[in-house]
Amino acid sequence: MPWKAGKRWVYSITYDEGLEALLDNALPVHRKYGIPGHVAVVASQLGVIRRIPVDPSDEPRCSYDGMLTLSPAQIAMLCAEGWGVSNHSMTHPAITPQNVRYEVIESRRVLEEALGMEVRMFCVPGCNEWYEVVRSVAQEAGLSAIMTIYDDINRQDGDLLRLCRVPLHEEYPPPFYSAYDPYKRLHQAADEGGWIIDYCHCPLPGRVMHRWKDCTLEHLAERFEAVLEVGGDDVWLAEPNEVVEYLMNTREGDCHD
Q1: If you count DSSP H runs as helices and E runs as strands, how many of each does the chain have, helices first?
Q2: What is the pLDDT of residue 54?
Q3: pLDDT tens-digit series, residues 196-222
Q4: Per residue in 166-183, pLDDT tens?
Q5: In order of start, what are the domains of the chain with their CATH numbers?
Q6: Residue 234 in 3-state DSSP?
Q7: pTM of the prediction?
Q8: Which of the listed residues 8, 15, 88, 189 has the most CB atoms within 10 Å of its CB?
Q9: Is there a contact between 166 and 198 (Cβ–Cβ < 8 Å)?
Q10: Beta strand extents in the chain (DSSP E only)
């Protein structure tokens, strides 16, 4: 079946952590190619110097610690340009049955209060090992969708609580060492009528903070050029929340029929 406005497939991109450097680097590239973005933000890390874990007595463990995160006002500015936002947990920990309500449910309340908007999409932090725990509270948390890091396209009849995301990384971790590919899964999505959700963190000019987690700004531009080349008039360039809402409305309409 066609997507919104008769489009044949869908392209989205997300940025984990919601770092302020996106404004100077990725945002101009998005504006140039007319592609909306999306930030997955940690509820306790808005408009501050990122530090995970949040306890100052613990050693930072992430390449992006020490970078400034987007403030609520900056996120509102991005949303006004067509970007979207999702909840990336309260503190970006390993999510367990013991902390899942704080990290998923309470974090949603904190994030919505800070942003003044509804946030019903959750982006699993860390690795997929925590996914099942997050999913176990999806109904209680009122989630419409959960984004993972399973490397695959999404289908129209797919599970919205298990959305796959395609990594835009300079090099995969061992034992793969896969080099950056600007055409990764694009032809598959076009052929199958699927939905690609890309993800990275904070592309920078000529360098990456972590080769396994990011691409360069130049490669981001190559990716967007490849999307437009393969997609032409057939691709729907959409922010993930918009696609989820469209699918939910479509499925609800099918049920009523």
Answers
A1: 10, 8
A2: 57
A3: 999 999 999 999 988 999 999 999 999
A4: 999 999 888 988 999 999
A5: 4-256 (3.20.20.370)
A6: helix
A7: 0.94
A8: 88
A9: yes
A10: 9-16, 38-41, 84-87, 121-123, 145-147, 166-167, 195-200, 235-237
